[in-house]
Design brief:
globular, Transposase Inhibitor Protein From Tn5, Chain A, domain 1
Length: 470
Amino acid sequence: MGWVEAHRKPATKKGIVDGKSSLAAMGDRLLRFCDAFGHHFRQSTRDVSVKSQQYLCGLMQAKKKNMERMAEVVPDSCDQSLQHFLSNSNWDGRAVMDQVAMETNALIGGSQDTALIIDESYFAKKGIKSVGIARQWNGRLGKVDNCQVGVFAALSRDKFATLIDGRLYLPGKWIEDSDRCKASNVPVESQVMKSKSDLALEIVRHNRKLGVGFNWVGLDGGYGKEPAFLRALDNDGETFVADVHKDQLIYLEDPQPTVPERKSTRGRKPTVPVTQTPSSRIDKWVASQPESAWKRVSLRQSTKGRKKVDIIHKMVWLWNKKETTAHCWHLIVRREINARNDIKYSLSNASHDTPALRLAKMQGQRFWVERSFQDGKSQAGLADYQVRGWKGWNHHVALVMMALLFLLKERIEQKKHYPLLSCADVEGLLAYFLPSRKMETEEVLRQMQVRHKKRQASIDYANKKQELTL
């Protein structure tokens, strides 16, 4: 009898099964879901598929998603074996992410309303040994701090979204220090300086090559401010909707950049193109528009009623001071009704006949990637990992994406009978129906003694270190 069969709970709770949909069988479905990914964890010399099931169950059951707390609730598990599974096992995290991407695509991909949303997530960490850690901008805290940064992609359609790809950003100080990279097991091919927009472009191209069906790419201002990145997407034939900063320069007419004719035999021949019309900052142009220029539109249903905003739409030209011709793209400006100073500016290379309301809804779809991060961190432990190396980080992120995919599956499959089912609801049900340790007196005392033993070891280590420095 295997680990699953030994601890499976029967799905027979009264008041839960309604004859149409069995929430009580959710635990069984999660374990079968794990089996569908099992081949990634079975190698010729070692089978860690049970550990993958235990880790995934721990992400769903433990209140705090670190391995010590997981081991306290998941039967037959221990934090050291979970740590080895995450940090040292040789299963391919990228292959797991790719399967997540394709299964997500089967659920919500291939629609005109499907988007691939790119965004960053920040992980505050202490010390200097965690891979990729540096003093850098932490958008979650709104300041420069010691943290790791990951570039992620979520596949999104309507209110459904989940993470399907993630890449760890390595600052220049790491790339310049090969010994530091080696100590964290960063693969040689990844020890190359890549900006966050480089990683984002890799993600878009990788998922397009996989066959993920998205209609456009959504980007925040951190990527919208990168002209080369937007032009690379445009050259690839990708449609994008990218937020930009308020100081973005636009042209209201085609600037027709040309190199001036030489007017004198003296001096050098002109080589730098100049525009025939002046540029304007987006915020200054918007501020000059009359109130009648704003149009109120309804974007979607929210928990507080219909989500309505005011928008301005105009075709504008963009030029990077190098190209021979300017790009004519959409400008969509969004203003919150009850916070009139809260204004977002976005550019899109969508076809010129795309309606303004359609563009506004495409812009607003970025809201759901934030929910994906919220669910990832609150319900699936995205930020709660206890690993320092490259392999451990990628393994943890891959398993979190598996967990988020299962949460998405349940919400979609149960939406007819439980349209308000949330990720938190699913996690709560799983915490009850999944196999769990029997918490009798001896087990409670044992877990306390284990915690005390580790705490004392930490105290002894600190005292010894202090003695050596005196």
